[in-house]
Amino acid sequence: MLKSLSLLVACFLMGCVSSSDAFQQQASLGRGINLGNSLEAPVEGAWGPKITDEDLVRLKKAGFNSVRIPTRWSAHALKVAPYTIDPAFMARVDHVVQVALAQGLVVVLNAHHYQEIDEAPAEHRERLAMMWHQIATHFADFPESLQFEIYNEPNTQHTAEAWNLTLAAALQEIRKTNPTRAVHIGGVEWNKIGTLKDLKLPPEDRHIIAQIHYYAPFHFTHQNASWVKGSTAWNGTKWDGTEADKEAVRRDFKAAADWSQKEQRPVFMGEFGTSAGVADMDAGLLNPWTAFIASEAPRYHLTWAYWEYQANFGIWDPKAQQWREPLKATLLGDN
Ligand code: GLC
């Protein structure tokens, strides 16, 4: 009795009683949206409109539970130690996070498009970890509805071996100030489901959410995407949702669910979506791929965030200042 009481006191002092477990933290993300092409552009505004407070009000009102905020910290920090983050940029991100949280949105704040680290992980690993040291310190007192994500889509030279070193270094810095905050970590090759198995995560850390991104079949979802070389050749590719098409998706989601079950860690689908090149979206028809992915994922205990809000894949048309209604209905139903 005494032993369990002292354990409870120790646990309380360490904060482990008050925090939700990773499965609750993952579930709280529900249906989310990426604020893409904003804070992860070289400078906010370079790739489209800046994020406004009204955007966050609008997203909450529409029925989204969470927002993922892609953020290019690497363009706003010193290149040499101590890698100080520009205070104006920190204040800007802080503002967007605060407004989102005030709306009752759960927030996933990441590091995005640090392309140099994918080319030369060993040279940039310490810089990413020390940027996380600063970000984690800054947001340490924020509620647990703020979640962190170490790095979007490690790829190229960021092999599984290199990425495991990178994530360990960053996680160590984060845990110094944020012992129970949910931290998202995806596998290499652009957060592919098949690379979850290569992740080396500290077994004792139970506040990790694994993250996957889903754009298969890529020639369908990325047709006519200006940033993907050769993608105009895929124009007109259809996804008809045949039984075979659906089975392929189910096989992928099952692989994620099996990994989750085996490792006892929740999985979040942090990105999925189709480019504006998918004609059905413009024609105002329901996009059957998006509808299927959004409705099928929860059957595999995946919560999700659509890519993205108001750029190429966007659910909101910033010029017309209106929702792309069919897409919104596809994602949120009658909300
Ligand atoms: C990844 C990239 C982002 C791109 C999206 C869809 O998140 O980082 O820039 O727009 O995938 O291709």
Question: Can you describe what's shown?
Answer:
With 335 residues, the protein is α/β, with parallel strands linked by helices. The longest helix has 21 residues, at 243-263. A hairpin with a 4-residue loop joins strand 9 (316-317) and strand 10 (322-323). Strands 1-2-3-4-5-6-7-8 form an 8-stranded parallel beta barrel. 41% of the residues lie in helices and 13% in strands. The protein has one domain (21-332): Glycosidases (TIM Barrel, Alpha-Beta Barrel). It has helices at 2-14, 22-27, 53-62, 87-102, 115-119, 121-138, 160-177, 188-191, 218-221, 243-263, 279-282, 288-296, 325-332, and strands at residues 31-34, 66-69, 106-110, 146-149, 183-186, 208-214, 267-272, 303-306, 316-317, 322-323. The chain has 13 helices and 10 strands. Helix 6 (121-138) packs parallel to helix 7 (160-177). The termini are far apart. Bound molecules: alpha-D-glucopyranose (GLC). Alpha-D-glucopyranose binds at residues 152-153, 271, 307.
Strand-residue fraction?
5-15%
Q: Main β-sheet, in a few words?
A: 8 strands, parallel, barrel
CATH architecture: Alpha-Beta Barrel
CATH class: Alpha Beta
How many β-strand runs?
10
Small molecules (ligands, ions, cofactors) in the structure = alpha-D-glucopyranose
CATH topology: TIM Barrel
Global morphology: globular
Widest beta sheet: strand line-up: 1-2-3-4-5-6-7-8
What is the fourth-level CATH superfamily?
Answer: Glycosidases
pLDDT below 50 for ≥5 consecutive residues: which ranges? 1-17
